[in-house]
Amino acid sequence: MDYNKLVSVTGLSGLYELLSSKADGGVVRSLEDKSTKFVSTRIHSFSHLESIEIFTTKDNVNLVEIFAAMKESKTKLPDAGDSKALKTYFEKVYPDMDFARVYSSDMKKMVKWFEVLTANKIDIKLTEAPAEEETTTDTAPEAKAPKEKAPAKTAAAKPATAKSTTVKKAAPPKKINSPRKMA
Fold it and tell me: Which residues constitute the domain of residue 75?
């Protein structure tokens, strides 16, 4: 199971592995009891763990950094129900966290999620975006040479010419031959 497939679902406790998704929802598997079910996006929202950031006094950090600090810490995880113990724990583990904007309910979720991730032996790391490949070999010089393009035909590319302005003369009025002659 990969970290990039894990989601949190609003209205449901715990973490889930996103098995497949559709326009109207997704099929998820619970990490706690391994049950599988369809979750509708009309009622619930999905949040990928990779996209969750935590407020700090400097720049926001990804949740992976908090989990890494929790993993490296020798401090025992606090009881999720004790908000004072949670704050004291995170002050030791990650002192740059902005405790005015990170609520005790958020810290409680982080502790519970960390316990679930370690219980399922999930490697907590971000997926890396594929690096762009650079071609540095000279084995195919014709592949590197740019193709010659025909010059584009635009109004700016045409030579300036003097426009001749011709004024059309009005057509002479037509004579109407009436059958009666006027005297």
Answer: 52-125
